[in-house]
C-alpha cells in the first residue's frame, strides 16, 4: 500500500485546533487503511514552536529536513508574518518545483502566496483575513470557502474546516467510503446548507430572526466600500426609514446607521491587519469619504488611531478581545 506523508510546517502562534483538525483524520484513517498516512512537524529553525494557545510543540527538524512529502502544510494563525522570511519562502518554492502538494491552514495561505506559489490558483483563508488576502495578492483567485483544492494546492479557512479539507483529500486518494468512515468516527458532518458556510449564520451572529433586518444587514455587508443611504437600506427590507430604525432598536438595541458604520470599521480593522494597503486606501475601502472622518470613527471604537492599531497589532485580534461591533452594543 502506498504511504502518504504529511509535513506540517508550524509557524509561531499557529492554530492548534486547525492543526488537530488536519491531523486527526489521518490518524483515524490509519485504523482502516493499515498505516497509510504518516506525519512530521517541522519548524523554520528546528526548535519547538508555541501555538496561539500557549502550548509548545516539539518538532522533528528544520526546513532542511522537509524532504519530499506527499503534502507540505503551512500552519499559521495570529502572527503569520513571523513565518514570512527568505528561508521558508525558498523552501516552499523548492517544494513547488518538486511537485509536492502544498497546503495552507488559516492564514498559512498568506505565506504560500508570498512565495508566489498561489498565483493563478483558487485559494481561501480564514474569513476574517479574506479582504486583506484579496487586496495583497491580486494574482490569486481568492474565494470565500471552507477549503479550496486547485491542482497541487489546497488551502483552508482553518478551525474545523481543516477536517473537511482532509476528508476530501482522503476521498481523493483512497475513496469516498474511507472518508465517510473517518467522518463518522470523528462525529463530523455538515448538512447540505452548511457545506459552503464559512461563518455562523447572520441569524446566529446578530441574534435576530427578522427576515427584513437580515436582508438589510446582508445589503450592508455587500456594500462596504460604497455605503447605501438609510432610505436605500429601508427599501431593501420593504420598510420606511422610521420603521427600520424602530426594528433595529427593538431587535438589536442599536441604530441602523451606527451598526452599518461598525461593520465598515470591522472591515477596516481586518484590512489594517492583513493587507498592505495604506491607511488612506483602507479608509476608502471601508466607505469613508475623508481620512479625518475615518480616523475619528476608528479611534472612538478601538481607542487607537488606524496607524497605532497597525503598528501595535499587525495581525488578527485575539478572539477574546472586543470587536468594533461588540463595542457598539
Structure commentary:
The protein has 329 residues and is an alpha/beta fold. The chain has helices at 16-33, 86-97, 108-114, 130-136, 161-174, 176-185, 202-206, 211-222, 230-236, 241-252, 256-274, 279-285, 291-302, 306-312, 324-328, and strands at 4-10, 37-42, 49-50, 56-57, 71-75, 101-105, 122-123, 141-142, 147-150, 153-156. It has a 6-stranded mixed β-sheet, with helices on both faces. Helix 1 crosses helix 6, helix 4 (130-136) crosses helix 11 (256-274) and helix 11 (256-274) crosses helix 13. The radius of gyration is 21 Å and the shape is globular. Mean pLDDT is 84; it is low at 314-324.
Provide a short characterization of the protein structure.
With 329 residues, the chain is α/β, with parallel strands linked by helices.
What's the count of strands?
10
Q: Tell me the series of helices and strands, N- to C-terminal.
A: EHEEEEHEHEHEEEHHHHHHHHHHH
Q: Could you report the average pLDDT, rounded to the nearest whole number?
A: 84
Please mark out the parts with pLDDT under 50 across 5 or more consecutive residues, or reply none. Answer: 314-324
Helicity range of the residues? 40-55%
Content of β-strand = 5-15%
- What is the gyration radius calculated from CA atoms? 21 Å
- Measured between the Cα atoms of the first and last residue, the distance is 57 Å
How are strands sequenced across the largest beta sheet?
A: 2-1-5-6-10-9
Based on Cα principal axes, name the global outline.
Answer: globular
The count of helical stretches stands at: 15
Largest sheet: 6 strands, mixed
Which structural class should the secondary elements be placed in? Answer: alpha/beta
Amino acid at each position: 500500500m502506498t504511504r502518504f506523508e504529511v509535513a506540517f510546517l508550524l509557524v509561531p502562534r499557529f492554530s492548534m485546533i486547525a492543526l488537530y483538525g488536519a491531523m486527526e483524520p489521518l490518524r483515524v484513517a490509519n485504523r482502516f487503511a493499515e498505516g497509510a498516512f504518516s506525519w512530521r512537524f517541522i519548524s523554520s529553525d528546528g526548535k519547538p514552536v508555541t501555538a496561539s494557545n500557549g502550548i509548545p510543540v516539539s518538532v522533528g527538524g528544520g526546513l532542511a529536513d522537509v524532504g519530499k512529502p506527499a503534502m507540505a502544510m503551512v500552519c499559521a494563525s495570529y502572527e503569520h508574518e513571523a513565518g514570512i522570511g527568505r528561508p521558508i519562502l525558498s523552501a516552499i518554492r523548492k517544494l513547488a518545483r518538486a511537485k509536492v502538494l502544498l497546503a495552507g491552514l488559516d492564514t498559512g495561505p498568506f505565506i504560500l502566496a508570498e512565495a508566489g506559489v498561489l498565483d493563478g490558483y483558487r485559494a481561501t483563508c480564514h474569513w476574517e483575513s479574506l479582504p486583506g488576502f484579496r487586496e495583497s495578492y491580486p494574482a490569486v483567485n481568492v474565494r470565500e470557502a471552507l477549503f479550496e483544492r486547485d491542482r497541487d494546492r489546497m488551502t483552508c479557512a482553518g478551525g474545523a474546516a481543516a477536517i473537511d479539507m482532509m476528508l476530501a483529500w482522503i476521498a481523493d486518494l483512497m475513496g469516498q467510503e474511507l472518508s465517510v468512515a473517518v467522518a463518522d468516527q470523528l462525529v463530523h458532518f455538515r448538512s447540505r446548507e452548511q457545506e459552503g458556510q464559512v461563518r455562523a449564520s447572520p441569524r446566529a451572529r446578530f441574534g435576530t430572526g427578522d427576515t427584513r433586518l437580515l436582508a438589510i444587514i446582508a445589503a450592508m455587508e455587500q456594500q462596504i466600500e460604497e455605503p447605501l443611504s438609510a432610505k436605500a437600506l429601508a427599501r431593501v427590507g420593504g420598510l420606511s426609514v422610521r420603521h427600520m430604525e424602530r426594528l433595529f432598536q427593538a431587535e438589536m438595541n442599536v441604530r441602523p446607521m451606527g451598526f452599518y458604520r461598525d461593520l465598515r470599521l470591522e472591515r477596516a480593522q481586518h484590512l489594517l491587519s492583513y493587507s498592505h494597503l495604506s491607511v488612506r486606501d483602507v479608509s476608502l475601502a471601508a466607505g469613508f469619504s475623508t481620512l479625518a472622518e475615518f480616523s475619528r470613527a476608528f479611534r472612538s471604537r478601538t481607542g487607537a488611531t488606524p496607524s497605532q492599531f497597525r503598528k501595535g497589532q499587525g495581525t488578527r485580534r485575539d478572539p477574546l478581545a472586543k470587536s468594533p461591533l461588540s463595542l457598539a452594543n
